[in-house]
Design goal:
Blueprint: E1 3-8, H1 15-28, E2 32-38, E3 41-42, E4 46-47, H2 52-61, E5 66-70, H3 72-75, H4 79-93, E6 98-103, H5 108-120, H6 123-134, H7 139-151, H8 156-159, H9 163-178, E7 183-188, H10 206-215, E8 221-222, E9 228-229, H11 233-240, H12 246-255, H13 268-276, H14 280-283, H15 291-299, H16 307-314, H17 321-333, H18 337-345, E10 352-357, H19 362-371, E11 376-377, H20 388-412, E12 425-426
Parallel strand pairs: 1-2, 1-6, 2-5, 6-7, 10-11, 10-12
Antiparallel strand pairs: 3-4, 5-10, 8-9
Helix pairs in contact: 4-9, 5-9, 6-7, 10-11, 13-17, 16-17
């Protein structure tokens, strides 16, 4: 049996993701698909628009065989840690033959060439990188400058500015560094770009779909009589019928305003409370928080209104909105630098936690249970095989999920479901 691994967020699941599943099986010759999916928080430093169990359910119905949750410390991290966490989990499972990822360029050769430079770090490249950093460039910009200079190819600038290309390079880099036997493939993103906010054809971006869903929750439109009224959810779903699978439409309809949508600003008061407890020294302990950023956070504390507004307020020429959002999310969720260093030293992922599986995938699960290098978690009470770092990592996941569930409870007045009460999905 051949198994291909996919690294995903499904925020939310759409036709492009369905194409990814089907195309990955086609080009790798795989019989089954194992997915590592971000939980309730995503890589751009924001909460997922809907809970992980809803997103996982649609993916299983669309053809994924097993879905594992990427621990929150990696799901809400820089591209480097996001990739390292996901790839290490695939390696630990002991059954994944290949991975297949989407990229804007679709050119495996050029992505691999860049990845090998970042993995090997030849001396000329390191010198160029240090020179760029000394000029005050942010690390991503400095690396881009060093790579184009070292490879003597200015056309790489565009490739190195696109988010899925960047993630793909990181996947290939970590596979190279680990000398992994896992094969890798890329497919070109269909039609829409990652940041596109308008629907396009039948393969729109998740960003465009999230924007449309927000219309049914926040925006207003003018009717024929010149009166402003909120668009109905049925109108929004009609526009999405060509963009997402039927099972996703049903889920979007059944759980609207009871389980989703969730936005960063829904966490504003939680974040403000946490920031009020911090000092310059304690802030600097969190992942991605420099002393300069810690100072700016404290300086502007009285100007805090909402999560998103505070990100905009703190943004500078050298620090992107996404970087700031991740940094603030690390503070809220208690993810510290020392934790990530500890996890890295012990092989990144300390366990494999199942969100759901198809019933005909039991044979794969049995194989994983027998060959995995990390504990397979089906119940949160099963922690006997976890290291101290593993227990810390799992507790961070539980806290993060319970905070997300608390926001759902407060926003939609729904009963609170503790993370320990959630059951594994079986389709």
């Amino acid at each position: 049996m051949k198994i291909v691994g996919l690294i995903t967020e499904y925020n939310p699941f759409h036709n492009g993701h369905l194409y990814h599943i089907e195309k990955a099986k086609e080009i790798t010759g795989a019989d089954s698909v194992i997915v590592v999916m971000s939980g309730n928080y995503v890589q751009r430093g924001a909460p997922a628009i809907m809970p992980k169990h809803l997103r996982a359910e649609v993916a299983l119905e669309a053809g994924a065989d097993i879905i594992f949750e990427l621990p929150v410390c990696y799901a809400c991290a820089s591209a480097e840690y996001f990739a390292a966490g996901a790839i290490s989990l695939f390696e630990q499972l002991g059954c994944v033959d290949s991975i297949c990822f989407g990229s804007e360029c679709g050119d495996y050769g050029v992505l691999e060439r860049i990845a090998r430079v970042t993995a090997d770090e030849p001396e000329e490249y390191r010198i160029l990188l240090q020179e760029a950093l000394k000029k005050g460039m942010s690390f991503p910009r400095a690396r881009q400058t060093a790579l184009t200079g070292y490879l003597k190819d200015d056309s790489l600038d565009l490739i190195l500015e696109q988010p899925n290309n960047i993630l793909g390079i990181e996947y290939l880099k970590i596979l190279c560094q680990k000398q992994s036997p896992i094969h890798s493939y890329t497919i070109k993103r269909m039609v829409s770009g990652y940041h596109d906010t308008q629907l396009a054809g039948t393969y729109s971006s998740a960003s465009a779909i999230r924007k449309l869903l927000s219309y049914a929750s926040h925006s207003v439109s003018m009717d024929r009589d010149g009166m402003f009224d909120e668009p109905s959810m049925s109108e929004v779903l009609t526009r999405l019928e060509d963009q997402v699978p039927p099972s996703c439409i049903r889920m979007l309809e059944d759980t609207h305003r009871s389980r989703y949508p969730i936005y960063a600003n829904d966490f504003s008061l939680l974040l403000k409370y946490q920031l009020l407890k911090e000092s310059l020294e304690s802030l600097a302990e969190y992942m991605d928080i420099s002393e300069d950023l810690a100072n700016r956070i404290l300086k502007h504390m009285n100007d805090f209104i909402t999560f998103e507004q505070f990100c905009d307020l703190l943004k500078t020429r050298d620090m992107t909105y996404a970087r700031l959002s991740r940094s603030l999310m690390h503070i809220l969720l208690g993810i510290r630098k020392k934790d990530l260093l500890s996890y890295r030293e012990e092989g990144y992922c300390q366990y494999a936690r199942i969100l759901g599986f198809r019933k005909d995938a039991k044979r794969i699960l049995s194989y994983i249970k027998a060959h995995s290098n990390v504990p397979l978690i089906t119940k949160l009470t099963q922690i006997d095989g976890l290291s101290t770092s593993g227990i810390t990592m799992l507790r961070q996941d539980v806290l993060a999920s319970n905070l997300y569930e608390s926001v759902i409870t407060n926003k939609f007045k729904m009963p609170f479901t503790n993370e320990y009460q959630h059951q594994i999905l079986k389709i």
